[in-house]
Amino acid sequence: MENKLKNILIIGLGLIGSSMALGIRRDHPNVKLFGLDNEATINTALQNHLIDQAARLDQVTMMDLVILATPIDATFDLLTKISQMNFSHELVLTDTCSTKNEIMIRANQIFNGKNIKFIGGHPMAGSHKSGVNAADVNLFENAYYVLTERNEELQDILSGLHSKFIIVDPKEHDQVTGQVSHFPHIIASSLVQQSNTYSKKHPLVNHLAAGGFRDMTRIAEANSKMWTSVILSNRQEIIERIKDFKGDLDRIIKFIEEKDEIRISEFFDSGKKIRQNMEILKGRGVIPNFYDLFVSVPDEKGVILKILVLLQDISITNIKINEENREDIHGQLQISFKSASDLEQAKEIIEGATDFDIAE
Ligand SMILES: NC(=O)c1ccc[n+]([C@@H]2O[C@H](COP(=O)([O-])OP(=O)(O)OC[C@H]3O[C@@H](n4cnc5c(N)ncnc54)[C@H](O)[C@@H]3O)[C@@H](O)[C@H]2O)c1
Ligand SMILES: O=C(O)C(=O)C[C@]1(C(=O)O)C=C[C@@H](O)C=C1
């Protein structure tokens, strides 16, 4: 298929826009990539060859595809400005916002009868980091990429992101992401703040916070402006999720007060089973790192290289080093694989060649 989307403008070259630029370039080295952002960001994007050329907003009219990778409030503003422009050919326009319903309602109102094909988009992967320096070509690998409708040419341009397209109704999208993406950010931030308040009375809090606390709170470091926009764009759903959760907390308070051993155990058991079932879904994109092996490694020079050499014939999707604060215990290498069989093979190789502790 000859793709007619040749001149592509990305507005907003932060974490998402710059990572998309790298992904687009991977499969489509010949498209012309333009960028629009503040001067410092554009300079970095040009230096790092993320884009070919800077563009102005009025140059939207000469583009074939425009990707809005901007915060939600800025995206609304840009949608309005673009809807006031005149196009001699059809513009394909998409966004990356974390909410979809309000954006689609607005787009349907303002693009009606215009030469603009708007397709709502949301890559279901990201990070607590932001800005052009966080660009990562593998950010969207194996993650779902939500679109509000199929579009062969757009999907082809985005193929180098290595994500999986899924068509979702905008309202349904906001309900689901409200539960599994937006609400968890509220929980993480509340937990960090509650612990901080408690630490005024109990300073040891700052020392005894360990792996569990770290795993629960990484996303509390996310960009506050972005999350304010997300929450305000999905208010009703998020309020409902919070109220629902309050009910769950009240239920567990009751079990504890009543020393109800069976119900407390059922509570944890149920959580464990549900999460383990979600693990099965990991390969389909619920959680980007799937089939993980945790190798406990001594803090010695060359140890990571040794493991990598051992696994050189197996496809690894990600490696993470979970450092330990204490010097006397081992750090943990988290290695992610594409399949259960790759994981099993890697486990056998490491077990055969080292005495490192391994867990799945
Ligand atoms: N961070 C995530 O995990 C994540 C994941 C998926 C989708 N998203 C969504 O993608 C969008 C971008 O998020 P991000 O994490 O890349 O944010 P970011 O802060 O890293 O990047 C946003 C960029 O947009 C630029 N910008 C803002 N207003 C602009 C304007 N009017 N014109 C041109 N550039 C402008 C900023 O300078 C910045 O470089 C948001 O709508 C967010 O909801 C974020
Ligand atoms: O990994 C993270 O830090 C994220 O929060 C990314 C995350 C999420 O997983 O909920 C957050 C917002 C996006 O719209 C999509 C993905």
From TrEMBL:
Transmembrane residue ranges: none
Record InterPro entries: 6-PGluconate_DH-like_C_sf, NAD(P)-bd_dom_sf, PDH_C, PDH_N, Preph/Arog_dehydrog, Prephen_DH
MF terms in GO: NAD+ binding; prephenate dehydrogenase (NAD+) activity; prephenate dehydrogenase (NADP+) activity
EC number per UniProt: 1.3.1.12
Gene Ontology terms describing biological process: tyrosine biosynthetic process
Reaction(s) catalysed (UniProt annotation): prephenate + NAD(+) = 3-(4-hydroxyphenyl)pyruvate + CO2 + NADH
Protein's pathway: Amino-acid biosynthesis; L-tyrosine biosynthesis; (4-hydroxyphenyl)pyruvate from prephenate (NAD(+) route): step 1/1
Domain Prephenate/arogenate dehydrogenase: 6-286
Keywords: Amino-acid biosynthesis, Aromatic amino acid biosynthesis, NAD, Oxidoreductase, Tyrosine biosynthesis
Family under the similarity heading: Belongs to the prephenate/arogenate dehydrogenase family.
Protein name, per record: Prephenate dehydrogenase
